[in-house]
Design a protein that fits this description.
The model has no long low-confidence stretch (mean pLDDT about 85). About 55% of the residues lie in helices and about 30% in strands. Strands 1-2 form a two-stranded antiparallel sheet. A hairpin with a 5-residue loop joins strand 1 and strand 2. The longest helix has 25 residues. It has about 60 residues and is an alpha+beta fold. It is elongated. It is built from two helices and two strands, in the order ββαα. It has one domain. It starts with a strand and ends with a helix.
């Protein structure tokens, strides 16, 4: 399957049902998604480093008091 019909329906203020059908091309969607690199692993590493440095500085401050 290369495309999927998407049907959207809603009611206006008068109670009339409005329906719209659009064909969604799946070949473009999967190609675009696959080419984007994930930022999640880098973000996790940065958060761990920041928390580690913060914890180290906090412990050093408590030790000096």
């Amino acid at each position: 399957t290369t495309s999927v019909p998407l049907q959207q329906s809603y009611k206006d203020n008068d109670g009339n049902v409005i329906t719209s059908i659009q064909n969604i091309d799946l070949t473009k969607a999967t190609t675009k998604t696959d080419s984007q690199p994930s930022m999640l692993p880098a973000l996790v590493v940065v958060i761990i480093i920041v928390l580690g440095i913060g914890g180290y500085l906090h412990m050093k401050k408590r030790k000096n008091q």
